[in-house]
Write a structure and sequence with these properties.
Elements lengths: L8 E3 L5 E4 L1 H7 L3 H4 L4 H5 L6 E5 L8 E5 L8 H10 L4 E5 L5 E4 L1 H7 L3 H4 L4 H4 L1 E2 L2 H14 L3 E9 L5 E12 L5 E10 L1 H19 L6 H12 L6 E7 H4 L15 E9 L12 E3 L4 H8 L4 E4 L10 H9 L4 E9 L2 E10 L8 H38 L6 E2 L2 E7 L7 E8 L5 E8 L3 H19 L5 H19 L12 E9 L4 E7 L5 E3 L5 E3 L4 E2 L12 E5 L5 E5 L9 H8 L5 H12 L8 E7 L7 E6 L5 H14 L7 H21 L4 E7 L2 E8 L19 H8 L2 E7 L2 E9 L4
Parallel strand pairs: 22-25
Antiparallel strand pairs: 1-2, 1-4, 3-4, 5-6, 5-10, 7-8, 8-9, 9-10, 11-12, 11-16, 12-13, 14-15, 15-16, 17-18, 18-28, 19-20, 20-21, 21-22, 22-26, 23-24, 23-27, 27-28, 29-30, 30-31, 31-33, 32-33
Helix pairs in contact: 9-10, 9-14, 10-14, 14-15, 15-16, 19-20, 20-21
Amino acid sequence: MGQALEPLFTADDAGRVTSWTETAAQLFDRPADAVLGNHVAAAVRGADAALRVVLRSDAEGGGWEVFPADGTCGDVEGPLVRALFSVSQLGLLVLDRELRLIRVSAAAGSMHGSTPEELLGRPLDEVYRLQDPLGDLAAARSVLETGTSVFSRLVTVLSVGGYRQYYSVSAFRLRRADGEVIGLAMTLLDVTRRERDAERTATVSRVREHVGRSLQMMDTCQDLADALSPGFADLVVVSLIDQVAGGDYPPLHPVDTERLLLRRAALRSTGAPDPDLGVGGLEAVRSESSFVRALLEPRPVLLRSGREGRLSDVPAREKSLRAAGAHSMIVASLAVRGRVLGLVRMYRCAGSERYTLPDLRAVESAVAHAALCLDNARRATHDRALASTVHRRLLPSPPGARLGIDTAYVALSPTADTGTWFDVIPLSGARCGLVVGEVSGAGLPGLAAMGHVRTALRALAGLELQPDELLARLSDTLTQLAQEWTGVAGSRDLLLTAGCVYALYDPIARTCTVACAGQPAPRLIGPDGRVERIDAPVGPRLGAPDSEPFAMATSSVGDGATLILAGEELDPALSTEVVERLLAVYSTAQELADGMFTRLAADPRHRGTALIARTRALPTDRTSVWDLPSEDRAASDARRLTRQWLSDRPGPPSADALDSAELLVSELVTNAVRYGTPPVTLRLILDRSLTIEVSDSGATTPNLRHARVTDEGGRGLFIVSRLTEKWGTRQSSTGKTIWAEQSWPEE
């Protein structure tokens, strides 16, 4: 028995060199690192040596072993080439310089579905329907011209049925011994399964990348449809359970499919959309057995049309799907945490491969992510609805007409996502505070902050503070509130600052005093229609680290003027042109607000809140002022003037109302004469209530105290507090004013 010889080199079934001995390196003058992995024909080309090729059995791993031919001469390449073209599973093509096939291996013919003889003599782009014929043919010609080989180029070929086949193609230039180029050699490796798996992986990655970027339910559904089509499906329909689409909690699994309704939330099609599949339509789950299966089974459902199979139980829908060329469908439920949110349907039509079982695993992974994102959007929608309800509760009632001013508001911002607010605060002396503000942050923490800020502002306004001082104190309050909220759940990342513009309007003095904190100053439109902005400096936001003091400005406001206080977001939209056009059409504040809303709401970029106030002339019989002597008789003079002025009005009041008014005037005037500084002034203002104001030039503020039984005096302000709805004092540059409001019967 002869001694077994070591092969010079070995090759696998694809004809690639797998081992290369030192003997082979000397015989063929090529080192191992230059030939390993290359084709045998290239490794031995040009060598003048006789070789013997031995096919290894499957038990030995398959492939070939190449031995020396013991000194006999012959064609080395012949046995190898014959084996490659007849035995190898690697597709081999030989093309001439015109890219016509002149030799085809058995494996290449099998991949094409033809015998090698049927393909000979035909151009490459005629034999294979290349998806990118220009690029693929250009690459082949480049190899012919330059001699630079191409390795593992991915080439897509369309089959007779329109399905895509993927091949990894390598190309080498062929030359004779004298250097003449005779054509190309190509190897084909079918990588369709690999590419299909890559497409499924890419689909799942695309869903994970694009779905979940929005917390709007409908946007999330549309993102899912867009991620699946085109690429994985030709038609995608995403439907939500009707109660979920309406904002309710999703039902628990298993669901009652007999009464369940689906509302279409998103649609994506590579062709013309079916009009019967419009977004918003309702479908009964029980009408489709595939819907029922998908909602009850843990995995997606695959259906294929054919002689007996169908995609829909509804005849009209089945007819429509067949007309669109749909041949396979996957239905998957959108479920998370034991609750069912809806369904997603994916169709493939003519020209696309049928869905297969591996596609179900990709769908299962994709819809699991989509369902989680959709549930997050549902929870956010619920939170927005709750925040919107809280916001509406925190806002004041719609403002109405007051003495000398008429107000209305415009709200274009989504109230669930922002802490904007407005306010009209009635103050003493027929004055009112006009406020527009915005708190940083969204959701419930921002709205809670808004409620705190609004409450604090109203309390500070009741202290009769000037606008600049009011904003300074409000900023300190907000800073303290932010410190208290540090670390509280839900507010850890909340930067608690606020923008606010506060305008104090006095209809009797016809002035408007304004201070701004991070918000633009109000616009003032005179009776002549000229639009200008009140020259009030814009200070830092409330609660901001900037300690710059607030400033205020006072402007004269004539009768028939219009004030527009707008937040930072909405103010740019209220250009002079827009305001002038609206004022040319509308007269009252409410009409102006409605017109502004109609004009601006159509553009989603317009967000924010605006407060509109229109001034009007005070009735001459609504207010009166008298200068009183600084003597004891001042109280009796005041009582006489008060009774006469109130009695001269149409529909005189009751005797009790007159007596109470006289008593209040007497006590306030007496207090001013005894403890104040001349001059003393009495002013009466009659609106919804009777306001009595007594002013003097002293700075001392009286205090309410409870007199003892034995005290002869000290009960004046106590009587005032008992007879009035409210009373107070306010300071001015010339002294102080004590005021009291008494309810007054309507005429």
